[in-house]
Amino acid sequence: MRFTQPAYPTVYFSEKILVKCPDCGSVGHIDTELGKYTIPFPHNHKSIFNCSSCGLKKETNEKWYGYCQGFVGRNCGFCGSQINYTSEPTKRLYESVTIKCQSCNREKDYKLKWYRYKEEKPTDPYFGLDLWLHTDIKDKILWVYNIDHLTYLKDYIASKLREDDGRHKYSMITNLPQWIKSAKNRDLILKKLDRLEKKLEKTAYNNV
Which domain of life does the protein's organism represent (predicted)? Predict the structure, then answer.
């Protein structure tokens, strides 16, 4: 089997995303109207989250539910040396962190600046909600946005011949981690994707 589909970026599949409702835990969906520019990240897009089970509705930039990462970049309050600090991604934000200066070895609390974290987590890029379609594979997490995303990935995994022509640095396939591309994991990943497909068939949004 040969994989010859276009080199779609992940954002191509993000116009309809299945997520877990933060209020009731049921499946909800995010509908996004993408703007003119989508790479490396959409600009001027409009996203709406809806949960038909509890009625929760959220619009673009109304609230971020996902992970954030804190940064400190300033001079030491004692000796003036440069201090750089990056926190682990977290959903629980805190105001400050105690940092020990590498030059003078003195400790001081510094205020963090928080930014949305959108990498390597099974969350959507618009609200940071947990994706409905994700599964554990060994110590890794495999996730997809919807049935089209799942089918595209499944076709790639199942293919033993994969064309590289036309790939670019933002294409989904280019940015897949090596453990997904590895032939030794093919059967296990396909089995997990089949289970996600069955889960999708049981939801009210299996046509998304």
Answer: Bacteria
